[in-house]
Amino acid sequence: MARAALSLEIDHRQEIVDFMRGFSLETTPGQAAKIASFRDVLRPGTDVYVTALHSASLYDTVATAARLRREGFNPVPHLAARSIPNRSSFETVLRQLRDDAGVVQVLLIGGGVDEPVGEYADTMQLLSTGLLDKYGIHTIGVAGHPEGSPDIPDEAVKAALAWKNEFAKRTSAKLYVVTQFCFESEPILRWDRAIQAEGNKLPVRIGIPGVASIKTLMGHAKACGIGPSMRFITRQAMNVAKLLTVSTPDRLVSELAAYRARDPRCGITGVHVFPLGGVKKSADWAYAAADGNFTLDARHPGFAVPVTT
């Protein structure tokens, strides 16, 4: 029995390592400005997404992407359809991303504004321009919402994913899905099984929250319209004394890693970390998990990584 238990522990440890290996994470232009050198925080070659915030311009995105490339990382800028004025500005930004930052991969999002500033209302319109192909950008992420989108009806979300699958079939584009973060595994599992049953063939990178206080997670969850898994963090936040307690996604990662390894229908191929409590904290935790530098506890469904200062 002891030998069997040890074998299961070793297998699950490897499942977690395999799940976290090659994780990506993101930064805002504002966060990036506070980091003296990303080389002190991340390992060379890491995919670093540059978020598109209302307070930052497209040119802030270009500058941050260029800096990441100079420091040895693969920048993956977000491009928000509803924030792009017209075809000319879209082409200008793509040209600058290629020329200044060597960008070969982007994440397309609709953008959380009520009204488009110009002629684009969704990512399908951006894909249809042909400009991404023109500027050598063939690896393209699109947004996924395991708990639904606060801005788009469920049927429209389904139709959009089906359209993107067809687009990937008829073009040379390598499309994949990057999801919003969740706090619990069950909504993710239900969503992944549902989209695979509906015919999705696009690889899925699951978003997970990084290391942050419960108070910080609550704030980001409300701002992002997180759905059912919000209950998980809300239950913890009900105890005011725990609001400043640091939360890690170990249980979520443990359960998703087991699902990916054991269910042949699983469409999850990677992990995207939202460093809500800071890039370094989340990166340190994620690298420890990917390196197998953690402790499993049979009495606890997650795992623990060494505390860093």
Summarize the structure.
By secondary structure, the chain is of the alpha/beta class. 44% of the residues lie in helices and 18% in strands.
Structure report:
The protein is of the alpha/beta class. It has a single domain (9-213, 248-290), classed as TIM Barrel, CATH 3.20.20. The chain has twelve helices and twelve strands. It has helices at 2-20, 29-33, 58-70, 87-101, 123-128, 131-134, 154-170, 185-197, 214-224, 230-237, 250-262, 279-291, and strands at residues 24-27, 47-50, 74-80, 105-109, 139-144, 174-181, 204-209, 212-213, 246-247, 268-274, 295-296, 303-304. The chain has an eight-stranded parallel β-barrel with strand order 1-2-3-4-5-6-7-10, surrounded by four helices. It has a two-stranded antiparallel sheet with strand order 8-9. Strands 11-12 form a two-stranded antiparallel sheet. Helix 3 (58-70) links the parallel strand 2 (47-50) and strand 3. Helix 1 packs across helix 11 and helix 1 (2-20) crosses helix 12. It starts with a helix and ends in a 5-residue tail after the last strand. The relative contact order is 0.14. Mean pLDDT is 89; it is low at 1-6.
Nearest-angstrom radius of gyration? 19 Å
Order of helices and strands: HEHEHEHEHHEHEHEEHHEHEHEE
Looking at the structure, the CATH topology is TIM Barrel
Number of helices, counting only DSSP H or I runs of 4 residues or more: 12
Name of the CATH first level: Alpha Beta
Main beta sheet: 8 strands, parallel, barrel
**Distance from first to last alpha carbon:** 38 Å
Unreliable stretches: 1-6
Computed structural class: alpha/beta
Strand arrangement, major sheet: 1-2-3-4-5-6-7-10
Number of domains: 1
Q: What percentage of residues falls in helices of 4 or more residues?
A: 40-55%
* Overall shape: globular
